[in-house]
């Protein structure tokens, strides 16, 4: 009887440990942390390659983007809130690009959770999105980022030694382009 009870306790503890590890592994990147190892396809569009500072073909990792701060929007073509803020996100892109002090320091990308290349292109054309959008039709990136709801924003700061740090990680934190930009500048410690 003692052996059975001991076995049940061991199984229960093991089960709880596995559940806790799975829950912990499925959290969004926390402020002060780093991104999981995510690979994105190098864009075919030469202007998008130039914007991101990547070249060739194949894949790249987000911290390889040539910038000091990278704003990542996790969106879905089917998300009403993502559709609603799309014009403001494009305004954010233009605010950054029109400012010579920020243009080379801040870059934006979007990752379409559960969206195919076709769906991402439809979203891009419908909402006149000027920054690069990437499909995640298998939810692999979405899962690596903690199965976040959309729109979700992660901002990383690239350090001089090539490492990076998450400085912002929050659901639906975009309300208005100017205010969001100021909060990102402040959170990243970016000097203008």
In short:
With 192 residues, the chain is of the alpha/beta class. It contains six helices and seven strands; from the N terminus they run αβαββαβαβαββα.
Helix-residue proportion = 25-40%
Distance between the first and last residues' Cα? 71 Å
**What is the overall pLDDT average?**
90
- The fraction of residues in strands falls at 15-25%
- CATH topology title: Glutaredoxin
The major beta sheet can be summarized as:
5 strands, mixed
CATH superfamily: Glutaredoxin
The poorly predicted ranges are 12-24
CATH class: Alpha Beta
Radius of gyration: 19 Å
Shape: globular
| Strand order in the sheet with the most strands | 5-4-3-6-7
The structure class reads: alpha/beta
CATH architecture annotation: 3-Layer(aba) Sandwich
Question: If helices are DSSP runs of H or I spanning 4 or more residues, what is the number of helices?
Answer: 6
Count of individual beta strands: 7
The string of secondary-structure elements, in order, is: HEHEEHEHEHEEH
Q: How many distinct domains?
A: 1
Provide a descriptive summary of the structure in words.
This protein is an alpha/beta fold and 192 residues long. It has a single domain, classed as Glutaredoxin, CATH 3.40.30. The protein is 40% helix and 21% strand. It contains six helices and seven strands; from the N terminus they run H-E-H-E-E-H-E-H-E-H-E-E-H. The protein has helices at 2-25, 46-52, 80-97, 117-126, 140-144, 177-188, and strands at residues 39-41, 59-61, 69-75, 106-113, 133-136, 152-158, 164-171. The strands form two sheets. Strands 5-4-3-6-7 form a five-stranded mixed sheet. A two-stranded antiparallel ribbon has the order 1-2. The protein starts with a helix and ends with a helix. The relative contact order is 0.18. Residues 12-24 have low confidence and may be disordered.
